[in-house]
Design goal:
The protein has a six-stranded parallel beta sheet with strand order 3-4-2-1-5-6, with helices on both faces. Helix content is 42%, strand content 16%. Strand 3, helix 4 (107-119) and strand 4 form a beta-alpha-beta unit. The two termini are 23 Å apart. By secondary structure, it is α/β, with parallel strands linked by helices. Helix 1 (17-23) crosses helix 2. The structure holds farnesyl diphosphate. The site of farnesyl diphosphate (FPP) has 19 residues, from helix 1, helix 2, strand 2 and helix 3.
Length: 226
């Protein structure tokens, strides 16, 4: 049984890859590449943190507005990430989950992801990657599905969210100093604590996560009570 002040589900808005690259005079793609390395390190460090689920905002429904080349760089990073890290996920008992309208991505990515989901299905710790994800779209679709079943109640909506099978989000972290939710997990954030750090995503490491968990553990959560 986890302690009350221990975060079971942590969600992260991984921001600042572009600025990380710019500061070094490198192409943006390099920032995203280092961003993937930060993801890899973080996933490897989950053991012993008490985190059962880590949800990462990798590509939003708004990210399609970026230049074609950058969208394609991000998609290629996704392909190579699955190729290089899938075996490690399986070996370490990590269950991959995808949230968002990911079936609208390129067919080869959809096929890779389907395979990855199947192969990691037995994992006990979840890494959920948000791909082509938008919270308003998610909530609208869930409300529609709830309406079709009968009643639109918070419980009914919740049952139709991508995250229905995950524990409630305890903590949201956003890197790079921006203080916004950017259409990420709006419903799920109802009682979550939020931590905004200035660190750019490629520089965010396991130590930074540990620090955020310590800050979280000291906060008093009231859920509207007292
Ligand atoms: C924000 O940085 C980051 C993104 C839009 C993409 C995040 C994606 C990754 C870290 C890689 C893919 C993830 C996985 C799981 C393989 P930005 O480009 O908005 O940075 P900026 O605000 O400094 O320009």
């Amino acid at each position: 049984m986890p302690e009350e002040n221990q975060a079971r589900h942590v969600a992260i808005i991984m921001d600042g890859n572009g600025r990380w690259a710019k500061r070094r005079g490198l192409p943006r793609a390099m920032g995203h590449k280092r961003g993937v390395e930060a993801v890899r390190k973080l996933v490897r460090s989950l053991e012993g943190t008490g985190i059962e689920c880590l949800t990462l905002y990798a590509f939003s429904t708004e990210n399609w507005k970026r230049p074609e080349e950058e969208v394609s760089d991000l998609m290629n990073l996704m392909r190579s990430f699955i190729r290089s890290d899938l075996e490690e996920f399986v070996a370490n008992g990590v269950r991959l989950k995808i949230v968002g309208d990911w079936r609208a991505l390129d067919p080869d990515i959809v096929a890779m992801l389907e395979d990855a989901l199947e192969r990691t299905a037995g994992g006990t710790r979840t890494v959920a990657v948000a791909l082509n994800y938008g919270a308003q779209q998610e909530i609208a679709a869930a409300a529609r599905a709830a309406a079709e079943e009968g009643e639109i109640t918070p419980e009914a909506i919740e049952r139709h969210l991508f995250t229905a099978d995950l524990p409630p989000v305890d903590l949201l972290i956003r890197t790079s100093g921006e203080v916004r939710l950017s259409n990420f997990l709006l419903w799920q954030m109802a009682y979550a604590e939020m931590i905004f750090v200035d660190t750019l995503w490629p520089d965010f490491g396991p130590e930074d996560l540990r620090k955020a968990l310590d800050v979280f553990a000291k906060r008093e959560r009231r859920y509207g009570g007292r």
